[in-house]
Specification:
alpha+beta, 3 domains, six-stranded antiparallel β-barrel, Thrombin, subunit H, Peptidase_S1_PA, Peptidase_S1_PA_chymotrypsin, six-stranded antiparallel barrel
């Protein structure tokens, strides 16, 4: 996703322009002729678009091939394997500036990554529904629209749904499910503790078993950023979204193939920036996400704390997340 902040980092913009010939050459095989129809690519074109994006005068959609290069270079999506992030799987050149930011935060990210899992289901029309993460020693947070697929209110309590005469839906969270890594770490979701109402934020809280089916202990909880920490970081803060992007028929198929290299449903890490704060509840960000990212965590690269809970987005426009302090309010109300 290309926001007005992608070139607010002067070093990243300088790197993009310095390496543009290399990027354009690497992109030709992936762009299906988009830029050939636009009359080719030059560094002057890249400079004009980069300045326009930074100044807010560029209209997205005018140069789709060039935009594809910008998005892949400035908002990549990394595979997660063995509990840490690796390089994107394609051969496209990676930004050294983005890589430097991620490497500086690697120790913090490696503490959080194992606490993010995929929400798998049985006795349901789907195999899995989204992402969740440890928000307290025995609690997983995800989205309301994810939890509503397997639970609902009945007689004053949340119960697991039962479809078409099948047994109640069984819900597990797998803390791994990494590309080409066979190991699992599956924990039973024992209880749906809370689902926020429709007129509130997109949040649900689940109680997870103390041990996995293989008797492993639960992963650690990811600490939530406080209101003070959150407001000190403000717009422009660098974050990493950790979750499980799935192929999304609502988004452009060619763009998804270029960015995700045809690999979906596995744990990924996507860097980006906070682009707006919406009152006391929500934020916008520009990390690259897809539908399965519902319930993903936004990790602040500076502190390693959770900044928010991703719940959706508009392709080419913005992504949405619930602010961490709002999550804290919900947890406090449940305690």
């Amino acid at each position: 996703m290309i926001s007005g902040l992608v070139f607010s980092d002067g070093a990243l913009r300088e790197e993009f322009l310095d390496r543009f010939s290399q990027l354009a050459e690497a992109a030709q095989a992936q762009l299906d002729g988009l830029e050939r129809l636009e009359g080719g690519l030059t560094v002057d074109d890249a400079q004009e678009v980069a300045v326009g994006i930074d100044e807010g005068t560029y209209r997205l959609g005018d140069r789709p091939g060039l935009e594809a290069i910008i998005e892949r270079f400035t908002r990549p999506v990394h595979l997660v394997q063995r509990g840490t992030f690796t390089d994107p799987p394609d051969a496209f050149p990676d930004s050294e500036e983005i890589g430097r930011r991620l490497e500086q935060a690697r120790a913090l990210l490696d503490q959080a990554i194992p606490s993010v899992g995929r929400i798998d289901v049985r006795n349901h029309r789907l195999d899995w529904l989204g992402t969740g993460w440890m928000v307290a020693p025995d609690l997983v947070v995800t989205n309301r629209h994810v939890a509503a697929e397997f639970a609902h209110m009945k007689d004053g309590a949340f119960v697991f749904r039962q479809y078409s005469g099948l047994p109640p839906v069984r819900v597990d969270v797998d803390w791994r499910h990494e590309h080409r890594i066979p190991e699992e770490s599956r924990f039973r979701i024992e209880e749906v503790l809370w689902i926020e109402p429709e007129n509130s934020v997109d949040v649900a809280v689940l109680r997870v078993a103390e041990h996995s089916y293989e008797n492993e202990p639960r992963p650690r909880a990811i600490e939530l950023a406080s209101r003070v920490e959150f407001e000190q970081a403000r717009v422009g803060a660098w974050v990493a979204v950790v979750g499980y992007p799935a192929y999304d028929s609502r988004n452009d198929a060619a763009d998804q193939q270029r960015i995700f290299d045809g690999i979906y449903n596995y744990k990924r890490l996507a860097p980006g920036q906070v682009t707006a704060l919406v009152q006391q509840d929500l934020l916008h960000h520009d990390a690259t996400t897809l539908g399965g990212n519902s319930g993903s965590v936004l990790i602040d690269l500076a502190s390693g704390k959770a900044f928010g809970l991703h719940f959706g987005g508009i392709e080419g426009d913005r992504n949405f997340a619930v602010q961490a302090p709002r999550l804290r309010q919900i947890l406090d109300q449940l305690s």
